Fold:
Amino acid sequence: MAIDERFDIHLLNRQGQGRLKEEAESVSRSILEPQEDVLYAFLVDMTLEGDYRPSWVVLTNLRLLTLTAEDGSLVFELPVESLQSLEVVHRVGNGMIYGLTEDARLSVARFSRRCSMEVEEFLEEMEAVIDSTGVAPDFQRMATKARLVQRRRLERESNRCPQCGRVMRRRVCMYCLQKRKLIRRVFQYLKPYRLAAVASTLLLIGNGALSMVQPFLTGKLVDEVLIQHDLVRLRLMVLFLGSAHLLNAILSGTRTYLITWLGQSIVRDMRSDVFGHLQHLPMEFYDSVRTGAIMSRVTNDTQNLQNFIVRSAQDLLYEIVMCIGVGIILFRYDWRLAAMTLIPMPLIVIGTRVFSRKIQGTYRRIWVRRALMNSVLADAIPGIQVVKSFAQEDREIGKFDQRSDQLLDRHLEAARFRGVFMPFLNFATALGTLIVWGYGGYLVITGSSLTVGDLVAFLYYLNQFYRPLRSLSAFSDVVQQAATAAERIFEILDTPPENGRGHRKPLIPSEIDGAIEFRDVHFSYDNTEQVLTGINVHIRAGEMIGLVGASGSGKTTMANLIPRLYDPTAGQILLDGHDIRDLDLRFLRSQIGVVLQEPLLFHGSIADNIAYGVPSATREDIIRAARAANAHDFIMGFADKYDTHTGERGLRLSGGQKQRIAIARAILKNPRILILDEATSAVDTETEKLIQEAIERLIENRTTLAIAHRLSTLKNADRILVLEDGIIVEEGTHEELLTLDGVFARLVRMQSELSSNMVVF
Amino acid sequence: MEAANPKVFASEYTRFWQDSQQNLYMGTENGVLGPVRVKRAFPLTAPQDVVAIEDSEGRFLGIIMHYGQMDSDSIQVLEARLEQEYFLPEILKIYEIKDQLSLLTWRVETNRGFREFEVRNRRADIRWFSDTHVVIQDADGNKYEIPDLSRLDAASRQKVEMEV
Structure:
């Protein structure tokens, strides 16, 4: 089979070795020697020179080959018996498979990152084949390979759909999640309110019927009352028309209230669902989505969907009914006249469709421009202190003005577009009316079947006919918009929550001692850079461990793995012998207290913030915790004491004060395990002493993991672990490590030099 | 501050070559360094200007500015290396940008041949360095560059302007 350059190699790669070998054999037939058999084969998407053209990697019992997929010409060959190992390197935008012999490292094949996962898996299998067939006697399989592959496979599942291989947006494949199912799920939200929905639909139909009666009555009014000079019937008809209007008003008023109630109830349900689900999503989700985007989903997208469910769906029904109903009426009045009114219809339908398509593109560009402008705001306002201190106000103003101008341009573009299209559509509609006046007037004057009243009624009906026609023409776009909103909401709702990653029923042990074990733990945030490598530590219950190392050495990551903010990419973490993934997540976290370098306080009082982890705490408990955290005294110095409002993110408190509130919070929670992440790094010496005291009270009898820059604060630690590039390089007590005279001793010397210099200043 | 000044290897005295193990060596005024690793320090905004040299452990050794003054063999060896390290094909023509469920599928001609790729996030994955210089990252982490949008044909340009 000839493979052209646009051939989907991934599809073929997914079809299994049987098929791949068969294809590879037919491609390489002319090159293979008589005794040569294909043992293994797969495709990559690049040539060795770096062109995007597919290539075959083929293992035979004699050679390792690389062939171009188009014509099977040989690009690389290596006698397989000299192969000692295989190596894969992933780089930016591409990667390389190397074959190592006794004296050379040879490039075997090149691939883009689209193939990275496939290559990892294929190579692992190919190595197994080489191993089992013994074609390369000195061959060594890649170490830690299985683990790497496992990790990458997991990674792929989050990027590409395991079923169809297409790109997923977070862990949901929008191709496999069918549209129809999407809409059906949206309507699920209507279920609890189906009575109200039916009632409002009935009201809507009543509205429609009453609207249709009015032109008919008006026609009769002209023909049978005005022209006949019948005063008695005039009164009757006016009364009748008046009642119809009144009833219509009452129906539509009731419907408006009902529909608003219905819509807002649905939005509330959706918002709660989305927010509730968000609370249980893993940290990875938040790493990949901006806060603003998430907020927009909770508020805007739910609102859009509500509009669709309640308004558009009913409008659709209403307009279909009106269109058909009025259409029939028109033809019953006079079929010739009715046929004439259809003349401008294609103009209206096509015009509206084109208009709504184009205007959507324009609106999207406006949206993008607005977002760009807002991003300047989002940078400059919170960062105002930096802007001012670097005297960059003018630059920020310039940047903002530029984006603001661009937004204006887009708005004007939309206005120009509307300015051309709307009059055109109005003209097309008016054309219909003109035709009716012209031809209908002719029929009336020449005394054919049409009366003056009929003509008046016809004109009324015509208006009722064209309006729904226009909105129906744009309806597919409304559906498209709703589908987009629905997709964004269900993307969140379908992202598996944290607990969903465990396999077994979550464990809740009756008691926890607090012994923690890291067993060969590896971790990477992005699958390229390894943050932790082979961490093995056993922390006894109640032990205090100091974690030391340069920034970026993996200290905070190691701490974040304990409450499962992230899960290791390989290896295990055990709490009292249980894999923490088997434990109930809520239970696990209830056992862990965290004090961060910059503690986050929520909107509310100081008391609320201290009691955040234990909302049922008594006031006495709160004061006790605050006293233990050396926070009581400064709290009592505020006018509102424990009721003092912390302001947005605790803006009104100093760093040291926030820190002590966070410690009080942790003390009150009374966890078995404590994580202190540079808890004393941002405060003056006096405050540090107070905090240090508080911490000493806090860590008593608890397993503690303290990350510290100031190494002096770790004197009391039972053991200190020194991390470098994600590897534990030293381990021991403060004294032991000083005696060892390694990394730790060097860091201590550097710090004491730094502080002695500071004294001189 | 003195200590932070990077060592600058004069490009006119620098040579690059590699051995059969594909190890890269660098000849300088003061002798041979190697095996070394090379990385562009500004791969997107100034790819030719600064190349950082590291030892095989990833420790920083120095930089070379404007390597174009080296002999052509060295440039060839170096550029092949740099290109493997940071593969950034140039988009020459855009056949289609399809927006499907807010996933953009691009079908393009690059200087390395035809390519189809998906972009997940309009804002995060498409970086504008100027009004005409754009770098696009696809769902798998591959990157593509349009160095000068105004040099593309009108139809391609319009597709970018409409969808991005």
About this structure: Helices of chain B lie at 72-85, 122-125, 154-163.
